[in-house]
Design goal:
The chain contains twelve helices and 19 strands. By secondary structure, the protein is of the alpha/beta class. The termini are far apart.
């Protein structure tokens, strides 16, 4: 590479989900192999990569505003290479807009070809011409990419890409493509390497991990993969995201209950408590199905933590539909939830549906959900009062530099007193204060 060799530094800014975070870690690994060093200050970096999310349309507009701000950054640093990738780039209209309105962008690529980053950089360095390459879809997953994990003691492991569900509000099947599962032996190989390096916790990633293996020739299920990964020595905790309610089988629930390494935590995004709205969303389950799944989970996994996603104000949602959602939240007693007001996502069927809900009503319904969830979260957390729990100490607490923060195996955030040397270890913590969204505690000596 002839150009910019004087500044082989990079800054990756990631927007969106854990899949994007893992993609950014892979790009960081690729760049490290090319001799790049990370630079936190984007104004000093030789390469800035914006890894974009496209779940919501307002997120697109926000990122376009951020891209616009780099016009000034590049004036002050003309050798800067600006790359934009991720889900937004899978939308042809976004790429066309960037091509015509944002000349400061040098590289554009999508979700399926991040492995070609070295070629993009090399070609740009040789001729200085803007590079644009977006693959519409891919039926393979590129294996053995280097990964620069954020933490040495916990890691994301992607087990599949894409989604086949086509929920009417969601753009993901169009930006991430159809479901493609990694071969189980490659996943086990990656996890074994992580264990050998000292990693204690892994989080398995996929748009719908419960459908893992459906596209493979051999018969392999998500439950079978969980069982195999539980045999890897050195890994202490196994998590997974995300679990579609329609595909959460008894076998998966039974596997979680049977194997101690699999965390007693399930994120089950129900989206709505109204069977009528769930049908309009194309979710392929009813409120009764959700109740049955939650009852099965709690029956087999005592002390389990269940979280969810809720969308309020979906087109055509009536007061009764909204009440059904509030009632289901109370019935299932979710530990917490990510709550969203429905927003139009151009290119999805819901965007053109009649009876779009006014923002004022959406805000009201969101607040009603949050009020119930706040009380439920506090009640769930209160069960931890004076209990001794195991916590993976992750980092210095964001609210108090003299304390650490980490999570229980049930996913509860704990801020606690301990020395910096505890970071990266699973320690015993006595919970002294239960709050609505976190727990406070003190580290104690324990086996």
């Amino acid at each position: 590479m002839q150009k910019n060799t004087r500044n082989l530094t990079y800054c990756i800014k990631t927007y969106g989900c854990q899949m994007n975070e893992n993609d950014s870690e892979k790009m960081a690994g690729i760049l490290k192999n090319l001799g790049y060093q990370e630079e936190i200050d984007e104004n000093k970096a030789g390469l800035v990569i914006l890894n974009t999310c496209s779940v919501r349309e307002n997120a697109d507009q926000r990122v376009l505003g951020i891209i616009g701000s780099y016009k000034t950054v590049k004036k002050n640093n003309p050798d800067l290479i600006l790359a934009v990738c991720g889900c937004m780039m899978q939308q042809p209209e976004i790429v066309a807009s960037i091509k015509s309105k944002y000349p400061q962008v040098d590289l554009i690529f999508g979700t399926h070809n991040i492995h070609r980053l070295p070629e993009f950089l090399n070609n740009f360095s040789l001729n200085g011409n803007r590079m644009i390459e977006v693959w519409e879809d891919s039926d393979t997953i590129i294996e053995d990419l280097p990964v620069q994990h954020k933490y040495p003691f916990k890691a994301f492991v992607t087990i599949m890409n894409g989604c086949n569900n086509f929920c009417t509000y969601c753009i993901v099947p169009y930006t991430r493509g159809r479901e493609v599962s990694r071969r189980p032996e490659k996943i086990i190989e990656e996890v074994q390497a992580l264990a050998d390096s000292g990693c204690l916790e892994i989080t398995l990633l996929g748009q719908n991990v419960n459908s893992y293996g459906n596209d493979l020739e051999e018969t392999v299920t998500f439950a079978a993969l969980l069982k195999d990964l539980s045999q890897v020595e050195g890994i202490e905790r196994i998590r997974f995201m995300t679990s579609h309610p329609k595909d959460l089988t008894d076998e998966v629930i039974e596997t979680i209950a049977k194997y101690d390494k699999i965390c007693n935590y399930i994120h089950l995004p129900i989206q709505s408590g109204s069977s009528r709205i769930l049908k309009k969303m194309n979710r392929k389950y009813s409120r009764e199905d959700v109740i049955n799944r939650v009852e099965k989970i709690r029956e087999l996994i005592p002390g389990v933590s269940i979280t969810t996603d809720i969308i309020v104000g979906f087109p055509g949602e009536t007061d009764q539909d909204h009440q059904d959602t509030l009632d289901l939240i109370k019935t299932c007693r979710f530990d917490s939830a990510f709550t969203f007001m429905y927003s139009i996502r151009t290119g999805t069927p819901a965007a053109t549906m009649a009876d779009q809900i006014p923002d004022a009503i959406k805000h009201q319904r969101l607040n009603e959900c949050l009020e119930i969830l706040r009380d439920l979260s506090h009640e769930c957390n209160a069960l931890y009062q004076n209990q001794i729990v195991k916590v993976l100490a992750e980092e210095t607490s964001k609210n108090n530099p003299n304390r650490l923060s980490g999570r229980t195996e049930t996913g509860k955030l704990v801020n606690f007193s301990a020395g910096q040397e505890a970071i990266g270890q699973i320690v015993h913590v006595k919970i002294t204060t239960a709050k609505s969204f976190s727990l406070d505690g003190e580290m104690i000596e324990g086996d």
